[in-house]
Specification:
Blueprint: H1 2-26, H2 30-69
Helix pairs in contact: 1-2
Length: 71
Amino acid sequence: MADKAKKMHGKAQETMGQAKGKAGRAMDDDELRLKGASDRVEGEGKQAAAETEKAVGDATDEVKGRIRKHK
Protein backbone atom coordinates (compact mmCIF):
# COMPACT_ATOMS: atom_id res chain seq x y z
CA MET A 1 0.00 0.00 0.00
CA ALA A 2 2.92 2.34 0.61
CA ASP A 3 3.85 2.05 -3.07
CA LYS A 4 0.42 3.32 -4.10
CA ALA A 5 0.68 6.28 -1.73
CA LYS A 6 4.12 7.17 -3.09
CA LYS A 7 2.88 6.90 -6.65
CA MET A 8 -0.18 9.05 -5.89
CA HIS A 9 2.02 11.67 -4.21
CA GLY A 10 4.22 11.75 -7.29
CA LYS A 11 1.20 12.10 -9.58
CA ALA A 12 -0.13 14.97 -7.45
CA GLN A 13 3.23 16.72 -7.61
CA GLU A 14 3.39 16.18 -11.37
CA THR A 15 -0.11 17.65 -11.79
CA MET A 16 0.73 20.67 -9.63
CA GLY A 17 3.88 21.18 -11.66
CA GLN A 18 1.88 21.15 -14.86
CA ALA A 19 -0.50 23.74 -13.42
CA LYS A 20 2.38 25.96 -12.26
CA GLY A 21 4.00 25.67 -15.66
CA LYS A 22 0.80 26.72 -17.43
CA ALA A 23 0.26 29.59 -15.00
CA GLY A 24 3.85 30.70 -15.49
CA ARG A 25 3.42 30.72 -19.25
CA ALA A 26 0.10 32.55 -19.03
CA MET A 27 1.56 35.23 -16.73
CA ASP A 28 4.90 35.35 -18.56
CA ASP A 29 6.61 34.39 -15.28
CA ASP A 30 9.74 32.39 -16.09
CA GLU A 31 10.46 31.57 -12.43
CA LEU A 32 7.00 30.05 -11.93
CA ARG A 33 7.22 28.21 -15.26
CA LEU A 34 10.59 26.71 -14.31
CA LYS A 35 9.36 25.77 -10.82
CA GLY A 36 6.43 24.02 -12.48
CA ALA A 37 8.76 22.11 -14.81
CA SER A 38 10.92 21.11 -11.86
CA ASP A 39 7.92 19.91 -9.83
CA ARG A 40 6.54 18.00 -12.83
CA VAL A 41 9.81 16.16 -13.45
CA GLU A 42 10.28 15.42 -9.74
CA GLY A 43 6.74 14.02 -9.59
CA GLU A 44 7.42 11.81 -12.60
CA GLY A 45 10.58 10.58 -10.91
CA LYS A 46 8.72 9.73 -7.72
CA GLN A 47 6.19 7.73 -9.71
CA ALA A 48 8.93 5.83 -11.51
CA ALA A 49 10.70 5.14 -8.21
CA ALA A 50 7.48 3.78 -6.69
CA GLU A 51 6.92 1.51 -9.69
CA THR A 52 10.51 0.25 -9.50
CA GLU A 53 10.20 -0.34 -5.76
CA LYS A 54 7.06 -2.39 -6.34
CA ALA A 55 8.67 -4.41 -9.16
CA VAL A 56 11.71 -5.19 -7.00
CA GLY A 57 9.48 -6.19 -4.10
CA ASP A 58 7.40 -8.45 -6.35
CA ALA A 59 10.53 -10.08 -7.78
CA THR A 60 11.96 -10.60 -4.29
CA ASP A 61 8.73 -12.25 -3.15
CA GLU A 62 8.77 -14.54 -6.19
CA VAL A 63 12.36 -15.60 -5.53
CA LYS A 64 11.59 -16.25 -1.85
CA GLY A 65 8.63 -18.38 -2.88
CA ARG A 66 10.75 -20.44 -5.25
CA ILE A 67 13.42 -20.94 -2.60
CA ARG A 68 10.82 -22.13 -0.08
CA LYS A 69 9.34 -24.48 -2.67
CA HIS A 70 12.71 -26.13 -3.33
CA LYS A 71 13.74 -26.62 0.29
